[in-house]
């Protein structure tokens, strides 16, 4: 696996653990496009690499949105259910399992209407989970930018090779460097002169 695939798979694993459905879908598409770009590089398919280069712009935009979401920029709230399509109240896996976090459950049976429920509190986190998510997205942006530059370089190399091959007539059905063949009757006369002991007299008779 390439570093791009490993980074995408790592992100996918933690989003699965947190049931973050929107990032899961985005990560899945990203993994598919990365594989497509690698295939295009190995199999000499510039169009596939161009698709990957275009996707990197989308991927960078998506990760910028994730950063804004967790930093609550522009009216966004990290506690909303936007990333779970409003079908669950799950949050980032890091919210309860970050470095140094201690998860505690307190019974709420004494409160009317909340019997058999528990309140979960998380304390002692060395780093708030939203900053971990921001670092994840920032790392993805950095890798995407490197991948975009590399994709543009590979496409330019492939294009130069195709142009140079066209210049020497590699794709032309009638190459520019073909040799003009002599007329058939002229070749016949030259061959006859070489094999006939009385070539000049015979040729004079034929011309008459």
UniProtKB/TrEMBL annotation:
<feature type="transmembrane region" description="Helical">
    <location>
        <begin position="20"/>
        <end position="42"/>
    </location>
</feature>
<keyword id="KW-0472">Membrane</keyword>
<dbReference type="InterPro" id="IPR008516">
    <property type="entry name" value="Na/K-Atpase_Interacting"/>
</dbReference>
<keyword id="KW-1133">Transmembrane helix</keyword>
<protein>
    <recommendedName>
        <fullName>Sodium/potassium-transporting ATPase subunit beta-1-interacting protein</fullName>
    </recommendedName>
</protein>
<dbReference type="Pfam" id="PF05640">
    <property type="entry name" value="NKAIN"/>
</dbReference>
<keyword id="KW-0812">Transmembrane</keyword>
<dbReference type="GO" id="GO:0002028">
    <property type="term" value="P:regulation of sodium ion transport"/>
</dbReference>
<dbReference type="GO" id="GO:0005886">
    <property type="term" value="C:plasma membrane"/>
</dbReference>
<comment type="similarity">
    <text>Belongs to the NKAIN family.</text>
</comment>
<feature type="transmembrane region" description="Helical">
    <location>
        <begin position="139"/>
        <end position="158"/>
    </location>
</feature>
<keyword id="KW-1003">Cell membrane</keyword>
<feature type="transmembrane region" description="Helical">
    <location>
        <begin position="49"/>
        <end position="73"/>
    </location>
</feature>
